[in-house]
UniProtKB/TrEMBL annotation:
Chain ranges of the DUF1468 domain: 11-151
Pfam families for the chain: TctB (PF07331)
Name the UniProt record assigns to this protein: Putative tricarboxylic transport membrane protein
Keywords: Membrane, Transmembrane, Transmembrane helix
Length: 163
């Protein structure tokens, strides 16, 4: 019983600490204009919610409201880790990180979305179509809708895609 309380306190403290870190780190974000909501708003919101959630967890634990321990997990322990799939996912993520600066967000994101879906067993042509559409939608929303600049790469100068 005491071990569970320590774990709950540690979890609440860790969540609150991550929230404090987020708030401190968000204050270092450069802001061009103070009139708009700006890029600090969302990190401040997330940081504040993390701090409040951590404190609420600590208070609930102090009042004796502990999380129920599960009797067992729904996991088949005889199934081995599929290292080929893990390797594909790592390779796609590394390729995404390398390609962001070289080819731009739309190409890198399309590769990431397609590669992750393909590695997890999706039909390749459907995954490719969805990945390209999703990457372009994210680029347009960030560049044109939010005014935030994701690297356009090969789409530099293309209206709607170049933030």
């Amino acid at each position: 019983m005491i071990a569970e309380k320590v774990e709950e306190y540690a979890f609440g403290g860790l969540v609150a600490a991550v929230g404090v870190f987020t708030l401190v780190d968000a204050s270092a974000i450069a802001v061009r204009d103070d009139n708009a909501v700006g890029p600090r708003a969302f990190p401040y919101l997330v940081g504040a919610m993390l701090v409040l959630t951590g404190i609420a967890t600590i208070v609930a634990t102090a009042r004796g409201k502990l999380g129920r321990a599960e009797e067992s997990e729904d996991v088949d322990e005889s199934v081995r880790t599929d290292w080929v799939t893990v390797g594909k996912l790592v390779a796609v993520l590394v390729a995404h990180l390398v390609l962001i600066d070289v080819a731009g967000w739309p190409v890198a994101a399309a590769l990431l979305f397609f590669g992750a879906a393909w590695a997890l067993g999706a039909t390749w042509w459907r995954a490719l179509v969805v990945a390209v559409v999703l990457a372009l939608v994210v680029q347009v929303v960030f560049a044109s809708g939010l005014g935030l600049s994701l690297p356009a790469g090969i789409f530099e100068g293309v209206p709607l895609l170049d933030g």
